[in-house]
Specification:
Helix content is 61%, strand content 0%. It starts with a helix and ends with a helix. It is mainly alpha-helical. It is globular and about 35 Å long. It has one domain.
Length: 82
């Protein structure tokens, strides 16, 4: 869900060209318009979102991965600061 929110923010407010999220993040980072802590945060949302959206393939298909307490809150806080 945070990936979709981030993509909407990048397209609506940062004016990135619609592509896949990884390329959109690269475009906004390359623009040098974000302060470093936001660059780091956007990259972290991408990494966490990629893991959730594209989990590592294993023999246990459909395996549910544990998340850390507060992880969803942290992601939403980051998006709120963009």
């Amino acid at each position: 869900m945070s990936r979709r929110c981030l993509q909407s923010i990048l397209r609506g407010h940062a004016g990135v060209k619609p592509q896949d999220l990884s390329k959109e993040i690269a475009e906004v980072i390359a623009s040098k318009e974000l302060v470093q802590y936001l660059v780091d945060a956007v990259d972290a949302v991408r990494n966490i979102g990629n893991f959730a959206a594209h989990p590592i393939k294993s023999k246990n298909t459909g395996e549910i991965m544990d998340v850390e307490p507060g992880e969803a809150d942290w992601l939403l806080d980051i998006l709120g600061n963009l």
